Amino acid sequence: MSIKRIGVLTSGGDAPGMNACVRAVVRTAMYHNVECYGIRRGYNGLITGDVIKLDEKSVAHTINRGGTILYTARSKEFMTEEGQRKAVSTCKFLGLDGIIAIGGDGTFRGARALSKHGVNVVCIPATIDNDICCTNYSIGFDTAANTAIECIDKLRDTMQSHERCSVVEVMGRNAGYLAMYVGLAVGATAVLVPEESIDFERDVIEKIRRARFNGFTHYMIVVAEGAGSAADIAAKIKEAIDLDPRVTVLGHIQRGGSPTGRDRVNATKMGYLAVELLLEGRTNRIVCTNEGSFTDVEIDTGLSMERSIQNMEVNVLTAMTGN
């Protein structure tokens, strides 16, 4: 299979490191004398033909930028058969020999739909939630975690000064990987994630009591958004032990900011590998990491995998929170 011209898009939620990944795709393509085009606004841009040519100059000084220079969107039209056929028609009209799609599982399902219409696709995981089951790591997770950690460290200063309880809600959609990581990093009093069943008395109230018995007068509760509302958790704490917690929802601040070195390097490696896979004729793949090594899996296989919080993380958290 001869690859002369490829397209790259970012879809779904933005993640720090997406620009570094796009940059790597463009530079690797140019190294192999392959033209590269940026598809703006995800699959919607593929339907409408919102495409720009990318070269070394257009991706210069983007490795340190958060967000995505290609913009991103969720396209309801692309979820339909008609929308998918329009996207395929754009690929044929522009002569795109392959598409590299950067995003989460929704992005991967979109790429799979394209592949069923004969489009060569390679996917790259980029989501702060780190909930892609076929990979140990996704672009954006490290930056989002460090952003949340920095915010909570600052919040702890004022909570300690006023001897208060703080309930902090972090993103993660239906997964608790980000909350678990952040909770361990900040030494939280308790961490609530959707993967683990919650006994409120045991997992929150008793841990606050134990901390008080040990001489602490401020408490930090980290809640994954998929485990419940921080406001609801705070209300239950107040009802149970008459504390008046302060609620902080970090929200989309976790998505922004300059990517960390880890996100920049991983994004660069994944972008490079995605182009290499296309050139080798290995398509309908997801680039992934496995115990530090970069590899790839077939899209159907990757989407069918299941993943849960590691037992070690649960055991460490249990030991660190003293219950």
Question: What would your notes on this structure say?
Answer:
The chain is 43% helix and 18% strand. It is α/β, with parallel strands linked by helices. The protein folds into two domains: 5-140 and 259-304, Rossmann fold; 142-255, 3-Layer(aba) Sandwich (Rossmann fold), CATH 3.40.50. Strand 1 (5-10), helix 1 (18-31) and strand 2 form a beta-alpha-beta unit. The radius of gyration is 22 Å and the shape is elongated.
Find the structural class using helix and strand composition: alpha/beta
The SSE string, one letter per element, is EHEHEHEHEHEHEHEHEHEEHH
* Average pLDDT taken over every residue: 94
In order across it, which strands form the biggest sheet?
A: 3-2-1-4-5-10-11
| Main sheet attributes: strand count, strand direction, barrel closure | 7 strands, mixed
Shape: elongated
Name the helicity range: 40-55%
For the record, the count of structural domains works out to 2
Catalogue the unreliable spans. Answer: none
- The strand count comes to 11
Distance between the termini: 58 Å
Assembly classification: single chain
CATH topology of the largest domain: Rossmann fold
- C-alpha-based Rg, rounded: 22 Å
The count of helical stretches stands at: 11
CATH class of the largest domain: Alpha Beta
Which CATH architecture of the largest domain would you pick? 3-Layer(aba) Sandwich
Percent range for β-strand residues: 15-25%
